[in-house]
Amino acid sequence: MQAGLGLLHLLPAYPLDCGRLIRGNFARQHGFALAGRAASGLGQAIALVLMLSYMPLRDPWLVLAGFFIMIGAQVEDQGVFFQSVVDTVRMREVMLTDFSTLSPSDTLADALVRCVHSLQEDSRSFAARS
Question: Which residues on adjacent β-strands are paired with residue 102?
């Protein structure tokens, strides 16, 4: 069983040890985003082949290992995608700059209407006009 697990980790699928080594070497040459996408794609392909090839043998452990490799590769792919979004979006693009204000003569209904129809989340964020 231990030898089988050792051989499993030699597969070049991302969440496994050999897959991490390949991703690291690829990242030095092509950048982290491209390396992460390539490693997760390769990991998912290897996991699919692993699951489909061992299903006829009715070996649940190898099918389960393929399933976890698939999940790990998908999580890596999502992480790379979210990191690329975080790296490209600037604060000025998402920052709220248009504030609604209330005057002392406004009613609670006016505050509710402005709260519902603006991007501000609650009436505490409205500034009182002098």
Answer: 128
